[in-house]
Amino acid sequence: QKEVEQNSGPLSVPEGAIASLNCTYSDRGSQSFFWYRQYSGKSPELIMSIYSNGDKEDGRFTAQLNKASQYVSLLIRDSQPSDSATYLCAVPPGPFSGSARQLTFGSGTQLTVLP
Amino acid sequence: GAVVSQHPSWVICKSGTSVKIECRSLDFQATTMFWYRQFPKQSLMLMATSNEGSKATYEQGVEKDKFLINHASLTLSTLTVTSAHPEDSSFYICSARDWAGYTFGSGTRLTVV
After folding, report:
1. Among residues B43, B44, B24, B26, which one has the least CA distance to residue B35?
2. How far is the C-alpha of A22 from the C-alpha of A34, rounded, in Å?
3. Which of A43, A92, A100 lies nearest to residue B104, judging by beta carbons?
4. A7 vs B: CB within 8 A
5. Which residues from A are below 8 Å from B107, CB to CB?
6. Conformational region of residue B39, where left means phi above 0, alpha means psi within -120 to 50, and beta covers everything else
7. With an 8 Å Cβ cutoff, is A46 touching chain B?
8. pLDDT tens profile B54-86
């Protein structure tokens, strides 16, 4: 089992629709979760972080975390063509893993918002 | 927010030569710097973790003698690709932990010809 898995893409949604991106993780000790957006040829940029169960909203973005199910998602409301990018779920290991706390990335979901 | 400055943003080198990539944390001290490599259409793969003042820790399958990492200060980490070959052509990205999470450099596109 991969440490961080994302729903396979690519994902296409019409402009104005809701895009839903999903991610599961294997380390039950993980306490922080990140969503990054990566445009082609660019490095990742942080768009959401979440630490507690439930929803966290920031503008058009909502992150949802369910630690019992080891599941984290990202919803993008009113999707715009400029949201077209690859979205990466990233999870650092839990505090007792003994590692250096590096991020483990999912394979990414390529989102295309159609005008 | 936290900024990690990475240079150069792109480089073309001849096979057999060495290339150095620098990452500087501009407004925070980066005790640990992570180096990733990304091939086209793939996700980021961790190559190594560098710690200020000590030897880097390399991931399995990454040649430490080929990818030399130096983290001599709390604000500077360098990755040197030695004796580069075309298969080393990739997008190299550094990252450091800051107060908000993890900040990434802008990446270096290396092309070996």
Report:
1. B44
2. 12
3. A43
4. no
5. 42-43
6. beta
7. yes
8. 889 999 999 999 999 999 888 999 999 999 999
